[in-house]
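Researcher: Here's a chain I'd like modeled. Treat it as a single chain, no partners, no ligands.
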Amino acid sequence: MDKEINKNNEYANPNLLVDTAWLNEHMCQKDLRIVDCDVLEQYKRAHIPGAVIQKDHYQKGAPPNHLNIMGPTEFSEMAKSLGIGEDTLVIAYDNSRGLYAARLWWALNYYGHTNVKVLNGGWKKWTTEGRPITTDSTIQATSSKFEPHENQSLMSTTTQILDIKNNREVIIWDVRSKEEYTGENDRGNKFAGHIPGATHLEWLNLVDEKTHLLKPAKELFSLLGNHGITKDKRIHSY
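Model: Modeled as a single isolated chain. Structure tokens:
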């Protein structure tokens, strides 16, 4: 068993997460920005004090580029509108078991902003613990400086997938629902089914359904390993 996982049942990269107790203590810290990653309607009902809301929680480009991530200029403007500058610590959260918070985490990292963490347990854990909430909107000044620097290593392309789909050192991980994987549900797409050779493990299996916390490291290590998803492999997920 991996030593980093086995020791005290800790995650290999705990710095990618933040817990509710820490955020509650530091939420007014300078150069910290809390981003609610759910939709506007949920934000209006209630959110963590000081949190800002994105116009597009998918971070996708404007039509006709709505299938891909925003371009550098568009993303930079979005980040600045949220008050995210080069020195800002971003805390992302949602009430969707981390789905949209993880999207923002990835998008920021893709554009070179690695100072971002996901609130483990998100809105569910925050409210369960009776921590402060508000309906007051937060508007940030747009004077922040955000210079995007694309990290292409975090992006998989169709060309890459076609080149490596029969490589045993590479795992293509389908994180969608079982019905999407089998083709029973096409979600409105032109084609149903999955990439040939892809391993299926729905992302929901990694998160506790009741608490919305990421499952313990030891449990995740076993679950992923049973599907051949191990740290010695190059993983492409979709």
